[in-house]
Structures are given as structure tokens and as C-alpha cells.
Design goal:
globular; single chain; 592 residues; four-stranded mixed β-sheet; alpha+beta; Vitelline Membrane Outer Layer Protein I, subunit A; 9 helices; 36 strands; 4 domains
Amino acid sequence: MVVQNVYLRSSSCSLCKLGPYIGRDIYDSRQNPLRVLDCGKPCQRCQSRPYPEVWFHAHCFDTLMDTLEPSQRPSPAVLEKFGSIMAGRYEARDRRRRDFTSVVGTLSSEYARRIMQPEFDHDLFLRFPTEIKLMIAEHIQPCWWMTVLDESRRLIDQLKNHPCRSTQLSLTRDVWVSKVTYRGVGYVARLSSSRPKATGCARVYHMKIPDIIDKIVLSLDSIGVSGIQFLDNNSTPKPDGSPWYEILEPKASTAKIKVRSNGLIVQELQLIADGSSLQNALLWSSPVTPKFHPWNIYKCLLKPRLDYLKLDDRIQGLLVCVSKKGDMAGIHGFSGVSAEFRNFTSRMHRRLGRSYKRWIYFPLNQGELVEAAWIRSVSNCPSRPALMLQTSLGRTITFGPRDPVPSYSPEYRSLVRIGDGPITGIFHNGLDPALTCITDMGVTCGDSSMSATPRLQPPDLRLEPPLAVPYYVDCWYMTRAFLNGLVRVEISRDLSQPHAPIVGMLLHYTDGHLEAIGQVRWEYASGEEISVPLYVEEGKDTREHSDYTYIKNIRGGESDPEQPPATGEWRLPTSGTIFWWSSRYIDKIVVR
């Protein structure tokens, strides 16, 4: 038999959930033998659409089949469906604990009793409290044959006996919930109005429905629904560590719910009233969702997965990562170089890989209000928006290139209307790992008495770049700030490049407020503070292009303010506006 060679990197075996082994054999869902070769480095195809999408280690597949009678063995169609169901695309919030919990479930099963006797005292293990069981599991670590012979086998049996179907339930009666465990997480397998028949792989419990339902909160991840809460007006939803939550709000007391299942785990609940489905809800990273008006959101996807960033006193500024193509990849509320900041930058590097990234930082000063917001888009590509903000100090920022598509005129849509108060938060789908850029976003507004009437039309920022755009420049970025009242600057160098160019500055003023131009690279913070007057030295790096201009150095002349600039330097004036123009290869400072 000819064994086909394949390249796999970002996927895992559907039976044991471990990655491929170079040079070892695997089976696809139709039991065709394949051999894994070394990828060398990750590619977009391996990450987005690996081939085959469903596969099994040869030793996992053979071990499973050897423990089953011929009549009990699953068909290729069942195995393919099982692999598709369990091919989760989203990261677990606590992967390490989930793995240990999965080991505890396996050690507690009857399969462990048969396999590990006499060395393992199964009855004694069952009497231990959960904390002791987790400590034991931590020393054992996840084991492929445990996963295959307990968890995967149990769920495959469940899938064979329960076909994929949808059901409807009335919300006027209590419900019974059946749950199955996968990777240490309990998922809703069935919802019914009567007690279902008990099975060995599902646990059943009763859930009381309030007389008047205000909200239904679903806990979700890439596998399916892991929790459900029926709440009245006096109840507050509780987070359970799930990545996403869907909040349904019944509009009628006679509403019903439609339960859609893949035969193993419930995937979706829909409200049905008067015979027609209600509007699909949004998904959030918290069960407590912000309030906003329909005009406060820019929506492209049917059901985006949104994360809310509250602009409270702890937020020092907004940090946005922009991709090589000029798309917003993520938004972070910067409150210092913290673990949260490092998680954000790591997520952006995983999302965009080794490609070029731009980091746009917009400081928010004490007492400064964000009063207006616009979405900039182009008609031929509405799913690549850029957010534009304006504050009570008249400061404006666009989190994107100056011209997204030079041949198309940009369109602006205001996210606020007259009567809206200052912007108190931003929500977006930048945490959805299935996406590479933000497509949906919006704002929340506070008390309208706290700010002036919002500006509905964006300011005119049309300016020509200081240089002709070379063929290798994708797009220009421009940030600006006033020079009046400038006291000192903190410079940012890109230490990932051998010549360590200066890529941006954080500006401090006499009144205490901050501005940022260029890129402020917090991960490379060097603490270089320079007092005015400032002298700028440009350089040219001829390794790539003859006109590769960058900012070589910025020094202060505080010790001798009257000292003339050195050769190749020029002095920043004390008034006017400083513009920092930059692209992937070029940085240029202009003063007007």
C-alpha cells in the first residue's frame, strides 16, 4: 500500500488531542494511511486549513479498535463526525487545569480500574477529595491511552447512539440538563422537559425556571454550550471561566427555545416566539454586557464575538496593533507593562506571525474625555474598518494608515449621535482567534450632561506625505502633536533591528498632559528621557533600498541651549506642529 506524505503542524489527533510526530504514520477519517513530514516552519495553510482536517495517530486508532468488538467499532462516518466536533479552534482559558481535570475523570472511570489494577487502588482514589485527585493528576500528566480508552471512546459511543437533531422546549416548565465531560469541561448534551434516561457517560440534573425570565445566559467555547443560566430581574449572571457568553432576552412569556445539537453537544439555543425566530444575539467575553444603542456599533458578521474595554481611571491609553495590510488586529487598554500587556502582545504575534506589525499608542490624560468616534471604511472592503477618536482636548487619532486604499475615497460613519454622552468604553471582536483582524466594533456612552455636543463629522486630516511613495511602501502612517509647551520626550527604539532606529516618542508638556507620535514600543522601553531643546539626526540604511530613511538619533541640548546643531542634525523648534510620517521602511519627521 502506498503511503501518502502530508505536512501537519497546527492540528492534533482527534483521539488523544496530541500533535503529530515527524516520520510517524497517521490515518485520515477514512482510514487511509499517511506519513507526517517536517514542515520546517509554519505556513498559512497549516494554520487555517490543515490536510487532513480530521486524523488519528496510528497507535491511537489501533488501540481503540483493538479494545472493541467488531460490532462495537465506529464507522468512518462516525469517526469523521467526532473529529469535526472536537476540532476546537479557540484557546482554553486554563488549559493546564483542564488537562489535569481530564486525567482525574479518566482515573475515576471503570476503564482505569480494568487497565491499571493491581498497581492502582481505584476505590481509594474515588474516596479522595477533589484537591487530592488534582494533585495526583498533576504528577501523572495527560496520557494518550487514557484519553483514547476513556474520554474518546465514551464520547464516540454517545455519538453513535444519539443522532444529530433539533428540539423545541417551552420556557413555562422546568428543564432537565444532561452533561458530558470533555477535556475536563462539562458540556450540555441534552435539554428536555422530562427526566432523560440515565447513561454511563452523562450526568443529569434538574434546573428550575423563573416565573418571569429576564435573561438566558449561555456559556460557550469552540466545542459548544458548557453552561446555561435562567435569570429573573433580580439575578446577576455569574462568570464560569468560559471564553464567551451569549445573552438571550425573551420578549414574551410564552417564548420557546430551539435547541440545536450535533448529536453529542448542544451548539446553539435560539428563542422562538409566535412562531418566528428572534434576532440573533451577540457573543461577549463576559456575562455582564454593556448597554449601547444600535447606532453605537459597526457590525459586519452575523454573530461577532465581542470583548468590552472600559475606559476607567486605570487606563493610561489605547494601544492598537495594525497588520501589514493596515487592518486593526487588536485593541489593548494600556495600564503599564503588566502581564495583561504581555499577553496582548503575545496574542498579536501569534495572530500575525512574523509579518510586519505597527503599534499605535494613544495616551489618555487625566480628566480628558473621548467625545467622538468614527468608523473609516472603503466601499469595496467594509470588513476592514479603522477606528477614529477625538477627545475633549481636540486630540484626534486614526488607528490605521493615512489612506487605506489610495484609489478609493474613504467613508466615515459616526458611532455617536447628539444626546450621547462621552465615550466610556470600546467593544470589538479582536479576541476572536478565528479572525486575523477586527471587523466589528462599537462604543458605549455615559451621561450626556458630562460633555459637549459630539462632533458628527470627522476633522479634515488630508495631508501629503513628505516623500513620494516608493514602490515598496504599502501605506503611510501619520501622527502629530504640538511643540508648544513641550518639556521632554521619551524615545522608543526598535531593538529588533540591528541599527536600533528610533520609531516614536512619548511627549511630556508643561501642563502635565502626554502625546505620542510614531510608535511607542513599550516592550523595548529603554527609559531614555531627553529634555528640550531637541536635535534630530536622520540616517539612511542602504541594505534594502537607497532611500531607506530612518531616525538615527534624538539628543537633548539642555546643558548648552545655544549650541548649534552638529553635522547631519537639525533642531526642533519650540512652536508649531510636529508630524511623524512612517511606513514599513521609512520614518520621517516634519515640522510645520
